[in-house]
Write a structure and sequence with these properties.
With about 240 residues, this protein is an alpha/beta fold. It has eight helices and 15 strands. The protein has a five-stranded parallel beta sheet, with helices on both faces. Strands 6-9-7-8 form a four-stranded antiparallel beta sheet, sandwiched between helices. A two-stranded antiparallel sheet has the order 10-11. The chain starts with a strand and ends in a 6-residue tail after the last strand. This is PUR2 protein. Keywords: ATP-binding, Ligase, Manganese, Metal-binding, Nucleotide-binding, Purine biosynthesis.
């Protein structure tokens, strides 16, 4: 393990990574860029103001501060190829390449990948035309769109009319981009199984379940996550 580690991101995911890394006796210090209030001057952890959107500046920061390992949690930066650029400059970096990051950032890419490799997934179609998007015959629909800075919008529509309203906002008003993916809504328990891998070995984390709907009883609009718990009793 490297003496000095840089974690890139500002959310709870990066906070958890920094917190756990700091517990290792092999790690002397963890920088988090840009970090948050929880990672500011917390023992072996401190925030850094390095401009993470500029990969050249990040590379120089790593060399100036003898960073032995970089972990990237921020999806927009992964999609922008920060891992590729850091590795090309000789900086050890843990995270997917820009091409692999599309599995999280690009729904149509991910769904096509699943179909191509025979991995079960809900029926889906991608649209660039709002009129065609409103013609899908799935009984219940999930409307997924992607906008600036990898912001993702997910609308769970109980009717065709509700789905069409979401498509109107996304495509005609250009709130979140020019393409939508409409999926068949699968009902049931939703669990997250996240793993760490170096390309050879896979280490699974405990199963977790997130609360994404705004209100109790799976009601209200979808959110980025209202909370989560682990372990789960269902599995």
């Amino acid at each position: 393990m490297a003496d000095r580690v840089l974690v890139i991101g500002s959310g709870g995911r990066e906070h958890a990574l920094a917190w756990k890394l700091a517990q290792s006796p092999h790690v002397k210090h963890v920088f988090v860029a840009p970090g948050n209030a929880g990672t500011a001057e917390n023992g072996k952890i401190s925030n850094s103001a390095v401009l993470v959107s500029n990969h050249t500046i990040v590379t120089q920061f790593c060399k100036d501060h003898n960073i032995g390992l970089v972990l990237v949690g921020q999806e927009a930066l992964l999609e922008a190829g920060i891992v590729d650029d850091l590795r090309a400059a000789g900086v050890r970096c843990f995270g997917p390449s820009a091409k692999a990051a599309q599995l999280a950032s690009n729904t149509s890419f991910a769904k096509a990948f699943l179909d191509r490799h025979g991995i079960p997934t809900a029926r889906w179609k991608a649209f660039t035309n709002p009129q065609e998007a409103c013609s899908t015959d799935f009984p219940a629909r999930v409307v997924r769109a992607r906008g600036p800075a990898a912001r993702k919008e997910v609308t769970i529509a109980a009717s065709k009319e509700e789905a069409c309203r979401a498509v109107q906002e996304i495509m005609q008003d250009r709130m979140f981009g020019e393409m939508v993916v409409i999926e068949e809504l699968l009902q049931g328990e939703e669990l997250s199984c996240l793993c760490f891998t170096d390309g050879v070995t896979v280490a699974s984390m405990p199963l977790a379940q997130a609360h994404k709907r705004l209100l109790d009883g799976d009601q209200g609009p979808n959110t980025g996550g209202m909370g989560a718990y682990c372990p789960v009793p269902q599995v």
